[in-house]
Design brief:
The protein is α+β, with helices and mostly antiparallel strands. The protein contains 2 helices and 5 strands. It has one domain: Alpha-Beta Plaits. The protein has a 3-stranded antiparallel β-sheet with strand order 4-1-5, with helices on one face. Strands 2-3 form a two-stranded antiparallel ribbon. The longest helix is centred in the last third of the chain and has 10 residues. It is globular. The structure holds iron/sulfur cluster. Iron/sulfur cluster binds next to helix 1.
Length: 63
């Protein structure tokens, strides 16, 4: 299990993370980011790609 954090003070809801890890990150009807705080280990590489692509460096994994 991985634990995902998003700093909503940084996130600008651009949605790049949604393309990299659609099982974890979504934009809701108001175009606001929603995400799962925990995900299966199988999502790790997708979440790491989302971390790399986020222009605001808003996403991190809990240690
Ligand atoms: S890529 Fe980063 S800034 Fe964009 S919606 Fe995802 S967390 Fe927010």
């Amino acid at each position: 299990m991985i634990e995902i954090r998003v700093d909503m003070n940084r996130c600008q809801h651009y949605g790049q993370c949604v393309f990299e890890a659609p099982n974890v990150f979504q934009l809701n009807a108001q175009d606001r980011l929603e995400w799962k705080a925990t995900a299966d280990d199988a999502e790790l590489s997708n979440v790491e790609a989302a971390i790399d692509i986020c222009p605001m460096q808003a996403i991190s994994l809990a240690e």
